[in-house]
Amino acid sequence: MNFRGRAVLKKIVITILLLVFVIVIAVPPLTYNYALSLIDDMPDKSEVIIISEKEIWAENEPKANRLNFNSITPYWFYKWLVSAAISDSLLWGNIDPYQNCSLMASKIAITHMRDTAADKKTNGMLWWHILHSSLSVYIQRNWTAEEIAIKYGVINS
Fold this sequence. Notes:
By secondary structure, this protein is mostly helical. The protein has helices at 3-37, 53-60, 76-89, 103-115, 125-142, 145-155.
């Protein structure tokens, strides 16, 4: 292969790598925002306190740390994929892809989706699960620990 052929091949490889990089960076926030656009209205925060929100959190949130639980982003999905792949293929059982994921935010998201019939806007189970994950991430990022615990307590009462 002559010098000119190598230069063209190098440009093609660099272009493909840049394109893959842009796709990897762009897909999570685009998917997250698209999934959230399928919901007409976001869940309401409850103001009714049944029992202490700290008690609710302690009893129902085994993995999410109360202090930094809202550090989750739409890029969490990549961590989940890598953790699941390593855990399954290399048989390392100590990797937890759900670390710092709020089970209560997930329950709030599913309840809201069922109450608002969001499944009618999602075409199939794939988008239903993407919407569920996106809404859970949204709740975790935009609500305080107290608001999540109170809403969870209201849903389960």
